Amino acid sequence: MPDLEPVVTPMSPITTSTITVFTRHSEECPKRDNPQWKRCNCRKHLYIYEAGSVTYRSAKTRSWEQAERLAQAERDLRDPVQIELRKIAQKEEAKQQAAALQDTPLEDALNQWIAGMKDQTDTSIEAYRSTTRRILRWARSKHLVTLRDITPVLLDQWRSEWSPVAEKKENRLALTTQAALLTRLKGFLRWATGLGLLTRNPGSTLKAITPNESQTMPLTMPQFEEVLAATEKLDTEVRYESARVGRHLKVLFLVQRWTGLRIGDALQLPKVALMGNRIALTMQKTGGDIGCILPDFVVEALNSLPPMKHISPDYFFVSGKAQPKTDTNKWVRKVKRINKYVSLTDDKGEPMEFRSHMLRDTFAVEMLLAGVPLEKVSKLLGHKSIAVTQRYYAKWVASRLRQLEGDVVDAMRRMGVTVTV
User: Fold this and answer.
1) Closest Cα partner for 363 from 389, 387, 339, 384?
2) Measuring CA to CA, which residue among 235, 239, 265, 263 is closest to residue 247?
3) What is residue 53's DSSP assignment?
4) CA–CA separation, 185 vs 208, rounded Å?
């Protein structure tokens, strides 16, 4: 076998990388002594000298021209100029791909986001779907079509418009609803940024909304009567008898007002749990058992509820087939409709939205003002610790103490002593 080293003329510069084509002839080839012969049908190979080391590689062809193209491709891979040109081309391609991703229609991105929620419950997914519908309504009102159209300024402006008493119905949101919407909105934008659909997260500067968990808003008795009256007005806006839920809402509110139950627990009350004036059930949030006493008129109202097609005969308010959270979400939407018929204000005269949790607050505060000790009110509410009750209702504990002080002063004066207060 002849020497297969390529012929290098004296004028050829020796570089750190040399790649040439040579022919590995067969024994029968008449040109077997010339590895640079191009026109025979023998196999072509590459000679690669790089960093002081020599390697041989089959070009996998018998054509010198094809082998030469392969050699040139190998030279380009090592050429600093070509390397830099490829980097520039790759960066430009990446920019174009990023720009194309940001042109993704917003609705498509939202659908993809929802489709990826494989580990969520049906109730949670429905809550996220509600958020996507709200985002799309806002986007359409601003003529936003793609992800690229969403800007930090527009998001901040939208957030500032949310209020329990907003002029626009779609922006009329309770504080807890605002917090949940913002959390999911920011979650969607983080997802889109992480996936490369956005190069920069437009929601990164949005400040979180944190409702004051110790905020307590009991209703006065006139306000409670106004809410009950609104349940009757609610049915005037529906056309079909099957959609009339005002009477059931009224009884639901009475149960909450006189037991302090959360709406989810009150809704799941089965008829067998009512024994005389007593009800016993397990609270969904804490898993603790609780017993309540109902006034006679509330028991009578429960027992006189008319049957409805979508309510099981074994329950007062639900079918018993859906998940509790699903039932709760459905009835909370009905509760929100009450606000169309009431004009509630807080102790500062500011408008406030009615929420069913106000009835739990009303029960607790009225019990405290009636003289029931805080530790017993805590048990009635199903709190795990009296510290929780203290955090929510400290203001009314102080009111009760002042009330007791007034009783003491009156008693002392009846005893004939002078008390200056």
Assistant:
1) 389
2) 235
3) E
4) 11
Question: What contacts 40, CB < 8 A, 6 or more positions away?
Answer: 23, 25, 29, 31
CB 277 within 8 A of CB 296: yes
| Maximal CA-CA distance, the chain | 141
Res 2: pLDDT: 47
For every residue of 147-201, DSSP letters joined together read GGG--HHHHHHHHHH-BTT-SSGGGB--HHHHHHHHHHHHHHHHHHHHTTS-SS-
CA-only gyration radius of the chain, Å? 39
- The mean of the pLDDT values for the chain is 85
pLDDT, tens only, 54-70? 999 999 999 999 999 99
Q: In the prediction, which pLDDT does 244 show? A: 80
Distance CA 220, CA 396 (A): 13
Residues 6+ apart with CB under 8 A from 42: 23, 24, 25, 26, 29, 32, 62
CA angle 321, 322, 323 (to 5 degrees): 130
For 227, the 3-state DSSP assignment is helix
**How much is the pLDDT for 9?**
43
| CA dist list (Å): 347 to 219, 220, 339, 352, 397 | 10, 10, 18, 10, 17
Give residue-wise pLDDT tens across range 12-37: 444 478 999 999 999 999 999 999 99
SS3 for 141? helix
The CA distance from 177 to 114, in Å, is 19
